[in-house]
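Data card: per-record layout.
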Amino acid sequence: MNIDPEPRAALAEDQARRVLMVQAFETSAADDALWTAEDRAWASRLARQTAGADAAPAQLLAERARHA
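The structure for this 68-residue chain is written out next.
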């Protein structure tokens, strides 16, 4: 039996919904996309600042989606 020594953080339903919505928006193939590379970088940078250095990857995703 393999036991993961580091449990993965789960997202709450509303956080997961927000992450998926942002992902769909970012991967849209529309020619007139409103979400630029600078916007993506801004959201990522702000998420790292607000989540803290010890944040789990799931928490970083949730923070990034919240800011986006």
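Known properties of this structure: The first helix runs from residue 13 to 26. The two ends are 40 Å apart (CA to CA).

See the next section for split statistics.
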